[in-house]
Structure formats: C-alpha cells, structure tokens
Design a protein that fits this description.
The protein has 827 residues and is mostly beta strands. The chain has 9 helices and 39 strands. The strands form 6 sheets. It has a 22-stranded antiparallel β-barrel. The protein has a 6-stranded antiparallel beta sheet with strand order 7-8-6-5-13-12. The protein has a 4-stranded mixed beta sheet with strand order 22-23-28-27. The longest helix is centred in the C-terminal third of the chain and has 15 residues, at 565-579. The two termini are 18 Å apart. It holds the Pfam family TonB_dep_Rec_b-barrel. This is TonB-dependent receptor-like beta-barrel domain-containing protein. It comes from marine metagenome.
C-alpha cells in the first residue's frame, strides 16, 4: 500500500463457482489527498462478503465412504479398496449400548434391517425390541454396524462458513514546523464468521466405554422412561427379559449440529517521527499499539449435567436415547459456550542510519543501528463449563481438570501470559571491491521469560560482469516459544489410540480406545534456532531477461512440540519389555489403571504374557511442550523473467520452480531408541515405530516440486493474463494396498517405506491448474476484467483424509470458478 496516494479508485468484484451456489463479493476503495503544506492522507478500505459452501453440495464430501470411488477388482487401484477409505464414524444416531457392566451389546437398526424382522412373528423367542408408536428403529441383541448407519460428517458440516470481513487503513504524513517528518497509521479490522459443524457425541467410544470406562461415560438407567417402553413383539419388556439395571453408551451421536459464531477485531495505531542529525545521520522512531480480540460462541453443545438429568427422568419428557432423530426430547440439553481471546502489543523503537559512515577505496560504508522494546500479552478465557467453574463428575469420581461439563469437549483452564522483549540491532553495507559488496547484520533479543538470543547475517554479492552476478549468504534465526506454550495451564485432550503394551501382553491386536493426554506449558523452553545458507547467481543473458538460481538450506535445532501420546506409550512398552515381569512402573508419564483383563471378539478372557508385569489400560499420558530433535531442509529456487515491448503489445512471462532436495527430520535420544527397538528383531518388532522421522520429502503433503507461471499481454485497452500452478506428487503413508490397518507404515513395525513384503503406498498425483483473465479499459476510465480460475475444473487428488478426502493444506478442491471485476480511478 502506498502511504502517499492521491486520487480515488473503486473496485467491485464478484466470484462464483461451477460446482456450488455460493457467491463472493468484494469492494475496495482507495482515497488520497495532498495538501498545500506537503501533507498527505491516504485511506484504504475493503469489504469482503463470502457465502456458505456446505458439505452436501459435493458428492465426494457428502459421503465419507470413499470405497465407492475404487474398483472392486484386483487391479493396481482396486487393491487399495479396503476399510481404510471408510472415513465414517461408528458413533451415529444408530446407537450401540453395553448391557449392565458386562460385554453384551445391543444396537439400534433401521426398521427395514433384517435384524428388526427376526422372530417378530415368534414373539418372545427373539431378542428384538421396539417402542410402541415409534416405528423408525428397533433394538437388537447384536453388535454389527451397518455401513449405511455410520455418520458422514459432510452431511452436516460446512466446507466453509459465511464470512464478512472489513479492513480500514489510514496513513497521514506531514512535516512539522521544526523540519521533523511525522507519520501516523491507523488500522481497524473486523470479521464475522458463522460455520456449522457436525453433531457431537461423548469423549470415548468403542470398547473403552465398557463398565463406564470412557472419558465421558454416559449411563442410561433402566428407570429411564424410554428404556421402560422397549418391548418384544409379544409385549414382554426389555428390562425384565434382559435383567437390565442400566446401559452404557458405546456409540452414540446427538441430533443437533454444533457450530460457532466468531467475531474478530484488530486495532492498530502507530505514531512515528523521522529526521536528520548533523554528520549525515538519519533517525527514525515510532510507537506502535495493537490490540486483537476474538469472541467465539459455540452453539449446539451438550451439557453433561443436563443430559444426565434428562435421561434419568421416568416420565415421557425424558431424554430418548433410542429416538434415531425423531422426538428425542433433547431441547433442554443444549447450551452455547464461549471462548474469548485477547492479545496486546506495545512497541517502541529508535534507529539511526548513515549511508557513509566512512569510506574505503571500494566505496562508502553504510550503517544502521537501533533499539527496540516491546511488550506482548495474551488472555484466553474459556466458558465456565470448560474452565472448571461449572463441573461435572463421572460415576467413578473423575472431574475437572480431567473432564468438562460439555460433551465431546475437553477441559481447558483460562490462560494468561505476557513478556517484555528488549532488542539491539545493527547492520552494515560494506563495499569490498569495486564489484563486490557485503552485508553484515546482528540482532540481540532479551526475553524476560526465556532468556536472550543473538542472531546474525553475512551476505556477499559479486558483480562478475554486466551479465552475471554471484550472491551468497549465511544467517542464523530463531523462533521464540509463544506465550501459549510457556503459560498454558493443565490441558487434557482425548484421543483414540492403540495400546502397544496390551498388544504385546495379550499377543493379539486390541481395539484402540479413548486415552487422555495431559499437557501444559513449559517455562524452561528454549527458542528454536536455525542456520540458513544460500548460494546462487543472477544472469541477464539478453536484454529484459533475468534468470536467478539459488540453492539454500535451513538447519533447525531444538524444535518445539510434544513427544506425543503414542511415543510415550511405546516407551512404556519398551521399558516393561526390558525389565520383564518385575518391571511394573514403565514410563512414569503413562498412568495406567490396574489390570482388569480383556476379552476377545467372542467374549472369552484373553491370556496375559507371563514375561510382562500385568497392566491395565492407559488413563492419562502426561505430555509437556519440550525442545525436540533437529530438522534440515534443502532446496533450489529457479526463476526466469522476460519482457518485451513490441508493435503488437507488451509481453511478459515469469516461471518459478521451488525444488526441495531434502526434508530430513533427525531422530535422536528416546526417539532413536524406539525406532531401533521397532526394527526387525528388536523388542518392539511388529509395532508401529515413531513416525515423522528420516527424509520426509515426497510424503504426506511434502512434494518435491512446486511450479508457477505468469504470462501477460497488454496492447492499448486490451489485456490478457494467463497463470498456472503445478503442485508435485507425493505418497500418503497411512494407506497401502496390503495394510493390516490404517495409520501404520507400509512395513508394520518399521520406520521404512519399502522393503520385503511391504505394500505400495497411496500415490497422490501432480495437480495443475490454469487461470485466464481478460481485461478491457474504456475511454471513460472504467476497466473491466473477467477471470476463469482452474479452467480445467481440476479437483484435488483423492486422499485418506477425514470428511473432505483431500490434502487441504496444499490442494484446493473447489474446482472451476469465475470472477467479474469493475475498476475505476477518478482523478
């Protein structure tokens, strides 16, 4: 943006889509005025209004069972057709329940299901139950889950919600009577978002819910009115025939969709002054204040207290867990909860510069030195039902901070944090020879919470001749731990994971179950530090052509993150295997309950390996933000630019290729120990090794190449722009054509992607899109442009990613779209 703009310009744009009904509209206004005293005021405003795109608008998004997109034969593609691609949830309105504290299960089925018709004519001999007057389901003594009864999130979710966004920037520049230049910047940003998600369930599902063992166990007493109504065809009651005292929900989903309304605002104010000292020194100083707020209301959430009270009623207004979407009596269980965030920044800086501090035979040496002080603060306020003000307690006494009063939501305390950072910096431009220049820079930052760090840069440029310039640089940089990772309180999250120890102990696969991860901030974190290198050249082989090539590398150490629940549990398994039957502690960060035994699929008790100390399921994994292993990236950037002014118009073209040579995540310490133990012959052989190590290039959203091209032609009032983007191919490691289950490397129990007996990984091919823009400028000064984006209507390559079936971080899946733009600049 120009801070000395003069005039008035207005732009209107509307976007539409081939595959969706949504429209996007944008208004931009630029205004500027010069005053007789040399002052200038410049104003920039834009408003963006985006409509909703729902998941059900696209056939792929609406149905999470992607197996339908594969052939059923044994072709190369057909061999991938397994339940890995069934990205649907067993937790649906067709619920499943454990009977009492045993392992027997009852499941709801659609009325036309074969199980609903079993022995209806025979009456009392069949274990099939219905509710008189409710003909939309039956409850059967069975535990198979029909594919058509699984939940596809795309049926409810918005791919994107509605968005209204406005941005205002005001610049004012003037010269004071004493000759000092003053500049002021005022900024205001606001946005409103509404997005619908999918209905919630309880934290913890599947076998972990037996005997109420889930994170949020949901107990349905036999006295519930609707449990009392269940009966066989002969009128005999469910409670009497099955001797039911209560049910535990194994799979369940509420009816009302969750979602959120979010409002964000940012205010920014800057006041600066600049001038000159004697001796050729220029100075500049500024004060900046910025405040950002985010207020989010999350609707459609279920209060655990309210739903427990509702399901305990013995009257017809009781919550009906067998409603299957009709007459659930659930109005009183839904609440709206909030999350309010605020961040503040106050900064002052002062710097002086001189283009000629002193001179050498090669030229003048320039210098800049300065200082900066800034204060950052943040506040993260959670709803009372989340932060522990309003609590809910499980049947076995667990409460905040391990569970919250909101179903499907983990507890989170309020978080506060602030820091003051003092900085000193200097930079020099040094001519080494007539055609060789160097740059030297250094910056020191002192944080009052994590200590200090010093980084620097050295760059060298050599103009070999009029056609060729050589350049190289080396620098260090850092990324300080943010205020969340340092100050966050005790945060508990639930995930469904496989338990390596149980699989080793029982010698068989055990279904994943709900496990809690407890993490918190770490005051001892250090900054991530990176060393950057680059070397390259600039060539101008002919007039108006520039070719650049730069080879670069980035080596990062002390990366910040979590070691992870799965890795902690794998370490627990290794320690116990190494210690044998006398090792009953394992990894102290993995908290297990006492062994209660496990049953096989037929309900028979499984036998524990006598070489291991008996252990039960994991209740909590204690995980704290830490500095992890090192990472190295290498690549090559190539760009070619050319322009030509001819009798038939002005042409320009730019081609860019970003090529990654390496993306290597080092494994050391405990991570390396686990990887080695998981190799063939190791104690953890046959178990999944820690993932995300070794060379990750070409895997999981990290293609080796990205290309872009821009071509333009202008002639008189006409203009044409063509642009294209190509994203390289990569493999998805969670999917292969002979995997025993998803989420494991191609060779189970190893960190390798190839080898004897390994399956082929799922391949995501390159994605290339082209855009075309046509423009015309009228004599009146109006300009009109029409654009077609993604001319070929290319869709994102299919990926095993929940709901959307695409690697959304790098692939756009909206297909072809259009825009029309009208622009006018007024003198």
């Amino acid at each position: 943006l120009k801070d000395n703009y003069e005039g008035l310009a207005v732009m209107l744009r509307q976007n539409s889509y081939d595959n969706f009904d949504a429209k996007d509209e944008k208004l931009s206004i630029q205004f500027g005025k010069n005053f007789s005293n040399g002052s200038n005021v410049s104003v920039y405003f834009d408003h963006y209004d985006r409509e909703r795109i729902r998941g059900i608008e696209d056939p792929k998004w609406a149905d999470g069972d992607f197996r339908r997109l594969f052939p059923a034969d044994d072709s190369d593609i057909g061999q991938f057709n397994d339940t890995t691609w069934r990205n649907m949830s067993a937790s649906s309105e067709w619920a499943m329940f454990y009977e009492n504290n045993g392992g027997n299960r009852f499941t709801m089925y659609m009325p036309d299901d074969s199980l609903c018709a079993v022995d209806k004519a025979a009456g009392a001999s069949g274990s099939v139950y219905t509710i008189p007057g409710q003909d939309n389901m039956c409850v059967a003594d069975a535990h198979s889950i029909r594919d058509n009864q699984r939940a596809s999130y795309g049926q409810w979710m918005d791919k994107r919600g509605t968005l209204e966004r406005s941005n205002l920037l005001v610049f004012f520049n003037t010269t004071l009577d004493n000759g000092i230049d003053a500049y002021t910047e005022i900024g205001y940003y606001t946005s409103k978002v509404n997005r619908v998600l999918y209905p919630g369930t309880f934290l913890g599902s599947g076998s972990s819910t037996k005997k109420g063992g889930a994170t949020q166990p949901f107990k349905i007493p036999a006295t519930n009115y609707w449990v009392q109504q269940l009966q066989r065809a002969d009128g005999s009651s469910f409670v009497d025939k099955e001797t039911v005292t209560h049910l535990w929900s194994r799979y369940f989903r509420f009816q009302e969709s969750r979602g959120y309304d979010s409002k964000r605002e940012t205010f920014r104010l800057l006041q600066g002054f600049s001038g000159s000292f004697d001796g050729g020194w220029d100075w500049d100083t500024a004060v900046v204040w910025s405040k950002a707020t985010s207020d989010m209301d999350n609707f459609g959430r279920v209060s655990m207290t309210a739903v427990e009270e509702a399901v305990a009623l013995t009257t017809p207004d009781a919550f009906n867990p067998f409603c299957a979407g009709l007459n659930c009596n659930d109005d009183g269980i839904y609440v709206t909860i909030f999350r309010d965030n605020e961040s503040d920044l106050f900064m002052m800086d002062f710097k002086v510069s001189n283009p000629s501090v002193f001179s050498t035979r090669a030229g003048d040496v320039g210098m800049l030195v300065g200082a900066e002080v800034r204060r950052e603060s943040m506040t993260d306020l959670r709803d009372p039902r989340i932060n522990g003000t309003i609590t809910w307690t499980t049947h076995d006494g667990r409460t905040f901070p391990y569970v919250s009063d909101i179903a499907n939501s983990s507890p989170s305390p309020n978080t506060f944090g602030s820091r003051v950072v003092s900085s000193l910096f200097a930079e020099m431009q040094i001519p080494i020879a007539e055609n060789v220049d160097a740059q030297l820079a250094i910056r020191s930052e002192d944080f009052d919470d994590i200590g200090n760090t010093v980084v620097g840069k050295f760059a060298l440029g050599w103009q070999v001749n009029d056609k060729v310039k050589f350049r190289t640089s080396t620098s260090t940089s850092f990324r300080a731990p943010n205020l969340i990772t340092i100050n966050e309180g005790f945060i508990v999250r639930s995930n469904t994971l496989s338990d390596a120890l149980l699989e080793k102990g029982y010698g068989s696969e055990i279904d994943g179950y709900s496990i809690q991860r407890a993490a918190q901030g770490n005051q001892d974190l250090e900054s991530e530090e990176a060393t950057n290198y680059s070397i390259g050249f600039v060539i101008e082989p002919i007039d108006n052509m520039i070719i650049t090539l730069d080879k670069w590398s980035i080596e990062t150490k002390d990366t910040i993150g979590l070691f992870g629940e799965a890795n902690h549990m794998l370490l627990d398994t290794l320690i116990r295997l190494q210690g044998g039957p006398s090792e009953c502690t394992g990894n102290p960060k993995v908290i297990r309950v006492a062994s209660q035994g496990e049953d096989d699929d037929d309900g028979n008790p499984m036998t524990w390996d006598s070489n291991l100390c008996p252990a039960g399921r994991v209740q909590t994994v204690l995980d704290t933000y830490i500095n992890l292993d090192d990472r190295k990236m290498e690549g090559t950037d190539i760009a070619i630019q050319y322009s030509a002014d001819t009798k038939v118009g002005k042409f320009s073209v730019k081609l860019v290729n970003v090529h990654y040579d390496e993306f290597y995540q080092e494994a050391s310490g405990v991570s390396l120990q686990l990887i080695e133990a998981a190799a063939p012959g190791g104690l953890l052989a046959g178990l999944p090794a820690p993932r995300g190590f070794d060379n990750l290039l070409g895997m999981n959203g990290k293609p080796a190449d990205k290309y872009s091209m821009n071509l333009s032609w202008k002639h008189g009032p006409y203009e044409v722009f063509v642009s294209g983007t190509k994203i390289g191919s990569f493999y998805e490691t969670a999917v292969n054509d002979n995997a025993k289950r998803s989420g494991i490397y191609a060779c189970s129990g190893t960190a390798s992607y190839d080898g004897p007996g390994c399956g082929d990984l799922w391949f995501l091919d390159t994605m290339m899109t082209w855009n075309l823009t046509l423009g015309y400028k009228f004599k009146s000064g109006y300009r009109i442009r029409g654009q077609v984006r993604n001319i070929g209507d290319e869709r994102a390559p299919l990926a095993d990613e929940y709901t959307w079936g695409a690697w959304s971080d790098i692939h756009s899946d909206y297909g072809r779209s259009y825009s029309i733009e009208l622009y006018k600049k007024f003198n």
